[in-house]
């Protein structure tokens, strides 16, 4: 069952600290009901602020708010086209009002309009205007920069009624149940800090929110609309008492809350914060509207067929059980031969034609609605993209606009995937967002290998020269791939060990993790160390292709080994096991190149919690990656200062972390962020440097392993995602992102 979004609305008007019953400067409108409604135009909210003499100002407010609603719903085309037409109509009306008056005598206006359709909120502003949206724990302010509240301004920020050209500012965001929209007269609202707005309206209910806002207004004049987004599961019976039906009102009636409700409206059994709302047809989404259109046409078809049936019954001969009326002799008419048969033939031809025409009408209406919806989405996406360019100096604001543009154009492409204009807009918006987020987009990402065994879920990947090793825990296998001389393709693939295989006379258990042991000290050539769940350490020599089992000490300390790593300290290679259940990192120091001694606990701090740790990397410091997106840096068992700074988006479902386990062969930290389908490059203090994303977003949807070789003349990055192994060259930092 889907969540159906609705809204509870409160209207507040305060003059000299006293709450007013009349709220003429505020308007709430629902779409007029119509069987052949062209599209879902949503629900409209309007706030206007006028300057000038107070005489007759309320009457003008009422005229202007009603004009906005009437013009918006009567304008064909997109939501933005309707809003633009409405604001232009207001400007034209004020210009007529001001004709012949000196500049200081005329009336000027600032206006904010908001349209709620589904979970999309479209905002249009002209002149001084301010809208706050409390959404998901943050307060968004539109416009995002300092609001243009200069009533004497010329040009794009000029108030309505001053010049013929109207500059309409459009914004878009999505909402969900619990979000609150505050449309307020800007002269008062500009004094409110977003924190005050949040405290006043978030999770308070509409009635309490209006009380809080009145308290903030104090003795000043203030007017505001409070719109709280509500949601309910479709198809679930409502247990609350239903209100008595309100009298039907003419279409496009302006809706008021309790403060401005006419007395003749009957009281409801259970008042709500939005008493007086006449209809909720405007909340239906486009699909529901199309269903209504189809149902209406089918109902019309049923009426036509029923009428035809009745007519045929009357004219066909042999109507049994029907007593004919006695005709008066003076008015008796002679039956015309063949009349009934001709009519029957005509009806037999007409009925299929009527059915076909009605069915074609349904399909035509659906196609028209989809075309209008597509055009509207594309227009709004273009507006968001343009706003991103206008705000390119304000990175957070520009970024939000580009993201909204991508969301909107994705919806448009879902309706018409081959549209070249939509595809080009998507490309432009993605490039603009990538530039802001420092993304290097991988366009020629081709798998080196695909693991086709049933149940494959390859994870850890390690590379050394032409050798690539991949561990698949789920199938219990370790693969050895060999690159060709060009390093672009594989020339050999083999399974070097698998679960159940006998190694040195004993069966291999679950393969937990693996790490590379570099050459140096007593170890004369690099080898692969694989942790066997049966308590052994398997060592694979890629030169000779041999695998042996090494004894491992301290097995009685194990609880739940999660990951392993190594670190070469210039004389020897230590071996580490991350055990989350033990809440410890076990450190093995080799003796005669063996790890058969009892390990020591690396952690010495009591406040380190390894619950939720998924991986670790060691370069002298120990970096622990957690499933919730945290990274903890440790040195000699104690926490070190470390913070993830500058990330465009927080980590979501990270799966692996990597840096070199000896010297400074790798300068950076790399984190596989599966939830965001990217690989992050970080400085070792946690500051963001760069991110790598695939052009095909699905390629990095299930990243499980990452390895980087920065020591070569051409650094390379190896990635395991889903059932594929990838490798690509890392461009220098100076390259275009």
Fill in the keyword field for this structure:
elongated; 38 strands; 6-stranded antiparallel sheet; alpha+beta; 3 domains; 737 residues; Phosphatase 2c, domain 1; Neuraminidase; 5-stranded antiparallel sheet
Structure description:
By secondary structure, the protein is α+β, with helices and mostly antiparallel strands. The protein folds into three domains: 268 residues, PPM-type phosphatase domain (Phosphatase 2c, domain 1, 4-Layer Sandwich), CATH 3.60.40.10; 124 residues, no CATH class; 288 residues, Neuraminidase (6 Propeller). Helix content is 25%, strand content 30%. It contains nine helices and 38 strands. It has a six-stranded antiparallel beta sheet. A five-stranded antiparallel beta sheet has the order 3-4-5-6-9. A five-stranded mixed beta sheet has the order 12-35-34-33-32. About 10% of the residues have low confidence.
In short, what is this structure?
The chain is built from nine helices and 38 strands.
Using the alpha-carbon principal axes, give the shape: elongated
**Could you please say which CATH topology of the largest domain applies here?**
Neuraminidase
Residues in helix, %? 10-25%
Spatial separation of the terminal alpha carbons: 42 Å
Radius of gyration using CA atoms only: 36 Å
Q: SS-based structural class?
A: alpha+beta
What is the CATH C-level name of the largest domain?
Answer: Mainly Beta
Number of strands: 38
Poorly predicted regions are 235-293, 318-335
User: What is the count of DSSP helices, taking H or I runs of 4+ residues?
Assistant: 9
Number of domain modules = 3
- Describe the largest sheet: 6 strands, antiparallel
Strand % is: 25-35%
Strand order of the largest sheet: 2-1-11-10-7-8
CATH superfamily of the largest domain: TolB, C-terminal domain
- Averaged pLDDT: 83
The CATH architecture of the largest domain can be named as 6 Propeller
């Amino acid at each position: 069952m889907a969540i159906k979004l609705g809204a509870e609305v409160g209207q507040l008007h305060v003059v000299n600290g006293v709450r007013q019953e009349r709220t003429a400067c505020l308007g709430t409108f629902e779409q007029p009901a119509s069987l052949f409604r062209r599209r879902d135009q949503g629900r409209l909210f309007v706030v206007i602020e006028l300057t000038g003499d107070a005489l007759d100002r309320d009457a003008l407010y009422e005229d202007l708010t009603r004009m906005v609603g009437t013009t918006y719903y009567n304008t064909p085309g997109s939501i933005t086209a309707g809003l633009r037409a409405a604001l232009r109509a207001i400007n034209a009306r004020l210009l007529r009002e001001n004709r012949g008056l000196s500049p200081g005598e005329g009336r000027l206006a600032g206006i904010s309009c908001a349209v709620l359709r589904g979970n999309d909120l479209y905002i249009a502003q002209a002149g001084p205007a301010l809208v706050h949206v409390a959404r998901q724990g943050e307060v968004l302010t539109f416009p995002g920069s300092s609001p243009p509240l200069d009533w004497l301004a010329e040009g794009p920020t000029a108030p309505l009624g001053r010049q013929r050209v109207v500059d309409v500012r459009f914004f878009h965001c999505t909402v969900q149940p619990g979000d609150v929209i505050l449309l307020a007269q800007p002269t008062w609202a500009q004094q409110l800090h977003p924190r005050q707005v949040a405290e006043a309206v978030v999770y308070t209910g509409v009635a309490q929110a209006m009380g809080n806002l009145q308290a903030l207004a104090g003795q000043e004049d203030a007017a505001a609309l409070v719109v709280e987004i509500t949601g309910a599961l479709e198809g679930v019976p409502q247990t609350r008492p239903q209100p008595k039906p309100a009298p039907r009102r003419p279409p496009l009636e302006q809706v008021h809350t309790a403060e401005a409700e006419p007395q003749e409206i009957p009281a409801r059994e259970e008042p709500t914060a939005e008493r007086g709302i006449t209809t909720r047809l405007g909340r239906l989404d486009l699909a529901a509207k199309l269903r209504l259109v189809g149902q209406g046409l089918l109902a019309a078809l049923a009426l036509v067929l029923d009428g035809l049936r009745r007519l045929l019954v009357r004219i066909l001969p042999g109507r049994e059980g029907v007593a004919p009326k006695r005709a008066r002799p003076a008015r008796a008419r002679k039956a015309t031969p063949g009349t009934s048969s001709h009519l029957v033939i005509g009806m037999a031809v007409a009925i299929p034609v009527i059915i076909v025409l009605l069915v074609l009408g349904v399909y035509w209406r659906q196609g028209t609605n989809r075309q209008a919806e597509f055009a509207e989405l594309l227009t709004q996406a273009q507006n968001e993209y343009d706003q991103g360019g206008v705000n390119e100096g304000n990175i957070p604001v520009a970024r939000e606009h580009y993201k909204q543009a991508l969301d909107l154009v994705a919806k448009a492409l879902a309706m018409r995937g081959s549209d070249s204009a939509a595809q080009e807009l998507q490309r432009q918006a993605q490039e603009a967002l990538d530039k802001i987020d420092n993304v290097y987009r991988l366009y020629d990402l081709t798998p080196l290998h695909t693991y086709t065994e049933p149940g494959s879920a390859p994870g850890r990947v390690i590379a050394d020269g032409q050798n690539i090793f991949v561990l698949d825990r789920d199938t219990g296998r370790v693969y050895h791939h060999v690159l060709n001389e060009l390093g672009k393709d594989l020339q050999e693939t083999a399974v070097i060990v698998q679960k159940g295989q006998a190694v040195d006379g004993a069966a291999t258990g679950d393969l937990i993790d693996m790490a590379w042991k570099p050459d140096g000290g007593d170890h004369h050539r690099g080898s692969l160390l694989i942790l066997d769940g049966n308590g052994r350490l398997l060592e694979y020599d890629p030169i000779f292709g041999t695998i042996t089992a090494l004894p491992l000490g301290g097995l009685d300390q194990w609880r739940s080994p999660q990951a392993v790593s190594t670190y070469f300290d210039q004389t020897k290679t230590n071996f580490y096991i991350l055990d989350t259940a033990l809440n410890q990192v076990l450190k093995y120091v080799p003796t005669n190149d063996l790890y058969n001694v009892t390990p020591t606990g690396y952690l010495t701090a009591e406040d380190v919690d390894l619950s939720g740790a998924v991986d670790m990397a060691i370069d002298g410091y120990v970096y622990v990656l957690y499933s919730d997106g945290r990274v903890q840096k440790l040195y000699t068992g104690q926490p070190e200062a470390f913070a993830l700074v500058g990330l465009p988006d927080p980590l979501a479902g990270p799966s692996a972390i990597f840096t070199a386990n000896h010297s400074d062969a790798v300068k950076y930290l790399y984190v596989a962020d599966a939830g965001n389908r990217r690989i992050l490059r970080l400085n070792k203090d946690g500051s963001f440097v760069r991110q790598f994303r695939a052009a095909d977003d699905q390629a990095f949807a299930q990243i499980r392993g990452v390895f980087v070789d920065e020591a070569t003349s051409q650094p390379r990055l190896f990635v395991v995602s889903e059932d594929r192994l990838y490798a690509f060259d890392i461009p220098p930092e100076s390259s275009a992102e």
